[in-house]
Design goal:
- The chain has helices spanning 46-50, 125-138, 154-165, 177-186, 200-207, 221-227, 258-264, 280-292, 309-315, and strands at 2-6, 19-23, 33-42, 65-66, 68-78, 88-94, 98-102, 106-108, 145-149, 169-174, 191-194, 212-216, 231-239, 267-270, 300-304, 324-328.
- The chain has 332 residues and is an alpha/beta fold.
- Helix 7 links the parallel strand 13 (231-239) and strand 14 (267-270).
- Strands 3, 5, 6, 7, 8, 15 and 16 form a seven-stranded mixed sheet that branches.
- The chain has nine helices and 16 strands.
- It folds into two domains: 2-121 and 299-328, Medium-chain alcohol dehydrogenases, catalytic domain (Quinone Oxidoreductase, Chain A, domain 1, Alpha-Beta Complex), CATH 3.90.180.10; 125-275, Rossmann fold.
- It is 25% helix and 27% strand.
- The structure holds NADPH dihydro-nicotinamide-adenine-dinucleotide phosphate (NDP).
- NADPH dihydro-nicotinamide-adenine-dinucleotide phosphate binds next to helix 2 and helix 3.
- Residues 12-327 form the Enoyl reductase (ER) domain.
- It comes from Neobacillus ginsengisoli.
- Keywords: Oxidoreductase.
- This is NADPH-dependent curcumin reductase CurA.
Length: 332
Amino acid sequence: QRQIKLIKRPKGTPTYEDFELVEGPIGEPSAGEILVRTVYISVDPYLRGRMNEGKSYIPPFGLNEVISSGVIGQVVESRSERFAKGDVVLGSLGWQEYSVVKDSSVRKVDQHLAPASAYLSVLGMTGLTAYFGLLDIGKPKEGETVVVSGAAGAVGSTVGQIAKIKGARVVGIAGSDEKVKFLVDELGFDAAINYNTEDVATALREACPNGIDVYFENVGGKIGDAVFPLLNNFARIPVCGAISGYNNAEGDVGPRVQSYLIKTSSLMQGFTVGNYGSRFGEGARELAGWLKEGKLKYEETITEGFDHTIDAFLDLFKGANLGKALVKVAEI
Ligand code: NDP
């Protein structure tokens, strides 16, 4: 079977030379294990951090090891009582066509509720990130203004819609006119800004006449900087991601934010979705409810073929995806 390994720690923006596509053994399941055929692979910005050495909230990938991420797969052979051949499962699995895993390391997904791929996006990690970051830290109230960056991506598009459900005015920041149109026309954002063609500070002042109460930070850098001068008193800033700096070889220095936080008594808090592990059930139920009621939409950008997994990952940093970026490896 084909597998993708990390063979070099990327310096700056990752390139194809940092990865290797190899042939490897499939393996046989022992008692309590299952053989899973990979169907969808989730490619995510946070994987870039795992390619660096050093301490973080999650250990780095080992060199010459198969990369792993969220995967939807189908059981093709079971030596477990918990799974039957044909079951569709979710787990953190390798970038390879088949995986032999312990039955306790994956869970079944309910395809009646939504197609399997949704468990890698709106009903999975990115949906839960949006849900807990926005509601637990951002705490938007009716009539408040919520700004979200990376707005047309997996997390950002869900954040904006949840904020709308909570009755906020929602302004998204994204990288193309197509994305801006999608946010306003399809997802019901009140306004959206193309940071590649507009002056973000000026556009934000226009789009947020009452200031900003919640800034859901997905990208950092200059876009984040433009938000601080517009914060209202007691604003909340869930810091979810800073993708604009993930490929910086050197540390990033921008305007200092302390004085803005002091002047407005604002709260800025970083988080990882893993902090909310004990409440995933609650989040997943609520997201599924909104999905069923038609209040929450989700979009996917699907790259076809295992061979294109690295392309799909590198595309994240070029903004090629609308909604969740996934690789489709096989049919269910
Ligand atoms: P997205 O679906 O949002 O994909 C990444 C997007 O980031 C691209 O489509 C692109 O959109 C944008 N982007 C890329 N480079 C830049 C740049 N230099 N400046 C501004 N925007 C850029 O990914 P996710 O929804 O999975 O993740 C969004 C953020 O949330 C990431 O920062 C990620 O690391 C973080 N995250 C954090 C988690 C946590 O637990 N804290 C969990 C999951 C994600 P565009 O065209 O608009 O530029």
